[in-house]
Amino acid sequence: MHKNTFTLEAIGTVRIEDQHYFIDLNPKYIPALEGVEGFSHMNILWWCHNFDEESSRAIVDMDKPYKAAPDKLGVFATRSPIRPNPIALTACQVINIDHHKGSIQLAYIDADNGTPVLDMKPYQPSVDRIKDVSVPHWCSHWPEYYEDSATFDWGSEFTFND
């Protein structure tokens, strides 16, 4: 098997201040914001830098992280940051864009302060929204929409909260 290696450069970082969420772009990427206005949401690809270690990257299955899940799950059946390549994807609502500073305010992102951002793409319903979706029975009671996740009792779903 041919092994590929890649070099990635963060385009910016996540900044969290007083429960406000921002992406601060590296100055050379500020021109890439041209035309972003009008998109209510962006798909943010970010690096789970707190789990970028050889031991975490070697884990391919785990004890169930969700109470209703099977006893073992492969990492590709989870949204865990522990995976072969610690890349995360979050669809985020855009609150404001400051072109001069290269800062994007988000309603929320599930990343830590200082998290490297790898890329951003506009959320486009014609390519990002799927009409007929199915999920395994163990997570079928989870909210159907992102917006409803804010009021869902996620704490009762995870085994690590026990």
Automatic annotation (TrEMBL):
Domain of life: Bacteria
Record-linked InterPro entries: TrmO-like_N, UPF0066_cons_site, YaeB-like, YaeB-like_sf, YaeB_N_sf
Any Pfam family matching the protein: TrmO_N
GO terms assigned for molecular function: methyltransferase activity
GO terms under biological process: methylation
Key words of the record: Methyltransferase, S-adenosyl-L-methionine, Transferase
Signal peptide: none
Domain TsaA-like: 8-132
Membership in a protein family: Belongs to the tRNA methyltransferase O family.
Name of the featured protein: SAM-dependent methyltransferase
Provenance organism: Vallitalea pronyensis
